[in-house]
Amino acid sequence: MIAMQYSFPLPADYDMDIVDARIRDKGPLLDDFPGLVFKAYLTARKGDPVTGSRDNLYAPFYVWQDGGGLNDFLCGPGFAGVSAAFGRPQVKTWISWQTAIAKDIREARFATRDVTDIGPGADLGAARAQNSAAALADTETGGALASVSACDPTGWKRLRFRLWKDLPQQALNAGTLAYRLGHLSLPEHG
Known about the structure:
Strand order of the largest sheet: 1-5-3-10-7-9-8-6
CATH topology: Alpha-Beta Plaits
Strand content: 25-35%
Number of domains: 1
Largest sheet: 8 strands, antiparallel, barrel
């Protein structure tokens, strides 16, 4: 699986209701998109007391089964539309080490994302095993409705992305980005 995210930083006085309306109108268009495991339509608002965001952001997050669906999306009308509206973003990708999804994922309302360095001397096998186990534990006992542990080998970064019904304060560490979830696109059986 492949995790993917792009982000649009928006001005402090930007009317985020415009983004909310876009999510409401366009979000369902990716429900059942071939190859998509899920897409989380994420926003952050400057000064939001729940997420603690310092900026206004529109930052969709995707998990793809493989590169086929990802390519179909990036080369198709959906990505062309978002690029026309906001400019073509830099798209970050990570190779999934573990993607764990709880049965009640549709109850998600928040997300957190942490990206950390993988040191040059790190044992990659051990890092993969540890982070994969953490992703499973997130959904089995940690309260997360989805958890993605992944690696970017071009910059040696580790990703930990989680969806939540309620945003737990213990999930907010220094450097953690927190978002509100506007829509979740899933396969019909998801």
